[in-house]
Amino acid sequence: MSIYLDTNIFYNAYSPIEDRFTADWLLNQLSSDFPGVTSEWTIVEMFRALKKQVNLNKIENNDAQVVIDLFLSDIGEDTQKKKLFIIRVKKSYIMAARPFIFNENLYAADAVHTITALQAKVDAFITYDGDFKKLKKIPIINPKKDDFKNSINEIKENYIKKTGKKKLKNK
């Protein structure tokens, strides 16, 4: 697989109160030749993240519902086009999260994302969350970094070489 997308990538892309440009750029890089991977847990985290913004009076409840509907529609379409793979959360992943919670001090959801990414054998984990930076088993790439787009383009090129996929144009 190519890259794992943490929930906050989708949140930044869809939330009306966040800077969406980098997250949008990243999601536009995905294709059937360079797919993204995430966990089905991302969906419920999106629900909660948007509800939190409603609770903080940053967005209206109706607006949050519209955003969620758009998000669900888009990821449904992307999975059909094989641009995005949504991995099921298995009990074995939940059990494997334990050492990441106790040894790395990750939150439960972050530990599940980590296990899912490792099981999917992705080339990198993309997140705005600094809690992942101490993980050594997978490259962590933060979209806030100056070289983010270059890093993604490099991963894309290496993925294409590794999989024998056609040469992709940078969008």
Automatic annotation (TrEMBL):
Domain PIN: 3-137
Pfam families, alphabetized: PIN
Protein name, entry field: PIN domain-containing protein
